[in-house]
Amino acid sequence: MSYNKAPSITAKVRIFTYEPCGEIVRHARRLEKEIYDNPGSLPFQEIIYCNLGNPQALGQRPINFFREGVRSLREAVADGIAARDGFPSRPDNIFLTDGASSAINMMMQILIRSHEDGILCPLPEYPLYSASIILHGGTMVPYNLTEDSGWGLEIFEVKRCLEEARASGLTIRAMVVINPGNPTGQVLSITNQEEIVEFCRKEGLVILADEVYQENVYTENKRFNSFKKVARSLGYDHHDLSIVSFHSVSMGYYGECGRRGGYMEICGFGDDVIDEMYKLASLTICPNIAGQILISLVMDPPKLGDEAFEIFMVEKEETYSSLLKRAKALQKAFSGLEGVSCNKFEGAMYLFPRLRLPQAAIKAAQLEGVSPDVFYAHRLLGATGIAVVPGSGFHPVSGTSHIRCTILPGEETITAMVPRLQAFHEAFMDEFRG
Amino acid sequence: MSYNKAPSITAKVRIFTYEPCGEIVRHARRLEKEIYDNPGSLPFQEIIYCNLGNPQALGQRPINFFREGVRSLREAVADGIAARDGFPSRPDNIFLTDGASSAINMMMQILIRSHEDGILCPLPEYPLYSASIILHGGTMVPYNLTEDSGWGLEIFEVKRCLEEARASGLTIRAMVVINPGNPTGQVLSITNQEEIVEFCRKEGLVILADEVYQENVYTENKRFNSFKKVARSLGYDHHDLSIVSFHSVSMGYYGECGRRGGYMEICGFGDDVIDEMYKLASLTICPNIAGQILISLVMDPPKLGDEAFEIFMVEKEETYSSLLKRAKALQKAFSGLEGVSCNKFEGAMYLFPRLRLPQAAIKAAQLEGVSPDVFYAHRLLGATGIAVVPGSGFHPVSGTSHIRCTILPGEETITAMVPRLQAFHEAFMDEFRG
């Protein structure tokens, strides 16, 4: 395969070697396939793996689990993606990962070559992005989502940021899109996604598509579309555009955070880069097996006719309808508070209401040396026991104050929590109204 | 606590923020403890965590698992370390990790501030070290283990390397010691460990103690001693010396590679650095829960009187005696080959025999553009199906050739494999004897 615009990667990844999973092992795998395909063609009937210190080999062949086993999990994920999108997916393009966070870190490690490399990221952002870009020595190039249009992504704003960054000497490598949004909870329209695809194709940017909330969409007039599906529907293939999609077992109706399962699908990268990524992934040996199995099950859920289908669907629907009920209750509560506005909840698992606090509260915050949202969130916690994240941690437009609140507390907890929130807010506003 | 020589860390870690696990959450935990210690002292009876998108909260309190649960696992690990060493261990100094590899990566990320920071590493080395140092932008400062003295660690050689590196302008931050050794299989004597402790204390180096093979010691006149135990036995405490110890569920008599469990114990770092490490660890949310539980069980195995004790001891002993039998059989086989020498196997899970190949073989390798060990390993694989790792991947002294072979194939497999190895080697030597 040839890739006109296939991304180059940092030399730091290319130059180290990791032989315990290197060329000789790949050759052993080829021989093993040869034995399987043409029995008797080689002077031995099996490969004896003395290369890796994997004591699971005790009393059993180490072969099956680490090769066929893991391959079949990647196949299940690829099949699930193909079924979701209606476009093919190759198991060789799937990397199973310990949740999405480590995958995102790995892509930043691969893409960022120096401080002159920039990554476009939305603001407000999930702060893993800025942290990971800093850690790998790159430059974050933020673009603002527009709160007034329901956290819309305006392509002219992204283009403006790109051009400004290029004028300052940066090379822009990739654009991060979080869809559905975190912390903002919006779902991109397909038209908007098409604009992003056209833009990234034209500008030669990798799309880093954070799609971990793909099964957290709660609005009737929008559904989740992967960026790969949108690109393929426009007629673009892996020669035209590089896309990385991240997914995780921690979200959706499954929500198995502690299991650390996830995948990334890498499209439009050269085979040499895939090899380098394999080497990099080898450094941490493998993602945990339970998580690997779980993400394959997430992408290959019970189908009509399967024994597990009925109870699976009931549980899934119950979870969705409960999450929606909770989101609505919290959104209504926040929207009803004086000086607070809250965009319509469309997806993901968060509300990100904006606070317009009295001047006296802003001054009191200044006196304590914290930003107004931090001041508010600490007061809320101290008075009610409700822990939310101050919005400034997500870097929204300067001068605005927000809090991020999950929709996850149980329905009864929310019922009990709303009057506490209201009473606190009223007292807070009264105290600082001046 | 004050630390005279507490290590400083890279600014890249200090400057990013990650609020979803930030100050407000720590404050919420303090309030929760207050509710527990003094019921009724606060205007609410519980903390409602709306900060993190953890859907495990569905239908159940998210509190217990992520706080008391995980704390008790770290307590079990700390208790196990204290029982092993006879010196106290604090749960707050334990980080549970997805195997040792991610912990080692994290320490390199923390310690390396720029290319001028050097890390002392043994050669031959486990190549995760050079890879991780390159990835985090530092400089590897190698010291040679002495093959002729059974892969001994000579402190004057380490001192020579340190001084040479300092003279070239590097700041040496840490010394990696792998004990028992990988790929070399030696176990350090306690005298040697005392020298290392004195050296690192005097020179202000962090000891990065790779102790993942602590339960793979097979020699009767040596036993495993942690570096922390050696330092404490010499009367040094956390003010005198910084030590990080890595351990993993992937090795020992348990060998649960695919589960990705591990810990690191951090001694002699300031609380501010521990806070930064907590922030860095938060970026990948948490290690997988099954692995966390498993490492706590590894460090808190069944005791005399426990129901599980008897069968546990039988399995453990069977595993040890089988591993020892296999190591002996392979060591005897390698030592008996023409031109091959193999140091006594003391610990870990590898033999690292040295090959002295005929000149004609070395020339044939040159013609193929590979090093002699790679040439030999490929020939061995192609003729017998035995996959070993060419020694050059572990960076031994230039001009020497080795292969690394695990002792893990089953006893019957080894019995079948040895004649194949012997026949291959004989034919190889005959072909190239010239």
What report would you give on this structure?
Chains A, B: Keywords: Aminotransferase, Pyridoxal phosphate, Transferase. Chains A, B: It holds the Pfam family Aminotran_1_2. Chains A, B: Residues 68-411 form the Aminotransferase class I/classII large domain. Chain A is α/β, with parallel strands linked by helices. Chain A folds into three domains: 19-58, no CATH class; 71-299, Aspartate Aminotransferase, domain 2 (3-Layer(aba) Sandwich), CATH 3.40.640; 317-432, Aspartate Aminotransferase, domain 1. Helix content of chain A is 44%, strand content 14%. Chain A contains 14 helices and 14 strands. Chain A has a seven-stranded mixed sheet, with helices on both faces. In chain A, strands 9, 10, 11, 13 and 14 form a five-stranded antiparallel sheet that branches. In chain A, α4 (99-111) crosses α5 and α13 (372-384) packs across α14. Chain A is globular. The termini of chain A are far apart. The model of chain A is unreliable at 1-5 and 60-68 (pLDDT under 50). At the A-B interface, α1, α2, β1, α4 and α5 of A face α1, α2, β1, α4 and α5 of B.
